[in-house]
Known about the structure:
Layout: H1 3-8, H2 44-53, E1 56-61, H3 67-77, E2 85-90, H4 93-106, E3 115-119, E4 122-124, E5 131-135, H5 136-142, E6 152-157, H6 165-177, E7 185-190, H7 195-201, E8 211-214, H8 236-240, H9 248-260, E9 266-270, H10 274-287, E10 293-297, H11 303-309, E11 317-321, E12 334-339, E13 342-349, E14 354-361, H12 364-371
Parallel strand pairs: 1-7, 1-8, 2-5, 2-6, 3-5, 6-7, 9-11, 9-12, 10-11
Antiparallel strand pairs: 3-4, 13-14
Amino acid sequence: MSASESLSKKPRSGRQSRQVPEKKLPDGLFPISYPDELPVSSKRREIAVAIAMNQVVIVCGETGSGKTTQLPKICLELGRGIKGLIGHTQPRRIAASTTARRIARELDSALGDIVGYKIRFTDHTGPNACIKLMTDGILLAETQTDRLLRQYDTIIIDEAHERSLNIDILLGYLKQILPERPDLKVIVTSATIDAERFAEHFTIHGKPAPVIEVSGRLYPVDIWYRPIDSINEYDEKSRSVPPQNRDLMDGIVDAIDELFRTGFGDALVFLPGEREIREAAEALRKQHPPHVQILPLYARLSAQEQEKIFKPGNARRIILATNVAETSLTVPGIRFVVDSGLARVKRYSYRNKVERLHIEPISQAAANQRSGRCGRVESGI
């Protein structure tokens, strides 16, 4: 069956599927350029060949490799996104919108033209768009009205190693519809620890999906461990507080003081939630002069406040973030990362029959993701 015949075929449910007309790309788009400093750029030919030769490809690598922003461009250069959209899922809304803006900027296109995004309550995708960023929940909801996802010719599932419920359902669903959509390409990105499991999951005719590994950070990152009850020997206030009385905020303040003495650069601090961010901001403002910017970063932050994070000025900055900054986002100027080792995680309570948010220690994979936020433009700590 040809690709055009497959695209015109209706799903078994009998419901009319949504068709995307073939689009005309603007003159001057090709050849597409790729940033030389990103490790994925050196692998783009290998990735392109794998996508052309296989229905499913697994791309794995550490954070900072550039796979989130460059994979859709590789697909576009292969001719994908013309007869259908290149769908690109992200676990979080802020990652979907910022990634769309970044790709649009690299393609020298207005947001919504070639590249758009769709999140809850916001659809910024134009009729001529080729690449559509969205949360995994949006794609999952679209399966209700477009069972075979015929509006897409390529689907990229990013950060699959997070193994959220939405991601797991999508991976199982895509495997089921692949035989009915031979024209559909699926690309799964993952940390190295889970790559082989995803490859086995997408075994076709007894052959696992090919895995392409991409290196991560460009510069070395030193890992320092500082227990909360350790004393900052340079701070008189820290020495006056007994170790047993110290809390997370004391540890954050001491860590920032120690890091800022090593040299210039911005710091990214990972905290469990908004409450801890407010407490840390208050504690840090007491210790640092007014010219040091202290900025929050969390999912409910307005678009205007988010823009401040991605437009650094001359002032030194301390970014206080939840795990929304753990994957896909690149905050410029970060040389130091302070990791509380905690995250607020949604868990289902069988006893109360409701979902609740619990503060829990993070996994080693999440800790590696967080450390990868630095070491991109110079060595980090």
